[in-house]
Each structure stands twice: as structure tokens, then as C-alpha cells.
Amino acid sequence: MTIDDLQNFLTNAPIADTLGLRLHDAAVDRTTITMPIAPHLTFDGTTVQGAIVATLADFAAVACASMVARPGQFVATIGCETHNLAPARGERLVAVGRLISKPGRRMVAAADVYADDESGPLCLTGLFTAAAIG
């Protein structure tokens, strides 16, 4: 998958639109996706619910795996473990994903989510297992 393919996927995926996800860069070693913090995604108008933060991390991690998929393959999450480390609040969340395992039919990627920018508080870290299908 190319960076243009990934951008088109995010542009056309209803969940990505609902969350306001934006791709900033994409490669096997690093993919960055941001999400604005909006009141409808929070508990109290400021703090984003943890599963939504994990969804952002999932997109960033699996995007790295998607960059090594063969043409015609779709990469899907088949497992994850996430840890919420700090409240997810501020103007936006920044997810940075990276592929940990070698490319193949099953891959492991990681993602960290920060508040506002990569120097902000680390809100969530996670490992994601993905399958290349097709």
C-alpha cells in the first residue's frame, strides 16, 4: 500500500471521518496520525474516552503494517493490548505507530498516543497484531 492509498482509505472510512483522523506521514518505521479532541468524543468535554484513544493507536499501528502489504491485500487488526497512562486531553492527540515484527501474513506493530504533540504527555501505549488478508 502506498501513502496515497492509505490517505484515500482514511478519507473514505466513515469511522476515520467521525474521529477526524488525519495522516501526517506513513512508512514502515513510523506512521503519524492525529485526531482533534472534540467534546462528543469525551467524558466531560475535555478527556477522551480510552477506547477511542486505543482506536487512534490502532489506526497508526496497523497503518505501518499496511505499508508492507502486497497489492490487493487488506490488513486487519486481530489482537491488541493497550495501556492508558495519562488523561487524553488538550487540543489534539498524536499517534505514532511502528512495525515491530518482520513483514508477513501476521505482523506486530506498536503505537504511542500523545496529548497535543510528541513532547506532550504519553496517554496510551499499545501492541497490535495484524493479519494481511488476500
From TrEMBL:
Xref: InterPro entries: HotDog_dom_sf (IPR029069), Thioestr_dom (IPR006683)
Domain Thioesterase: residue ranges: 47-118
A Pfam family: 4HBT
Domain of life where this protein originates: Bacteria
Name used for this protein in its record: PaaI family thioesterase
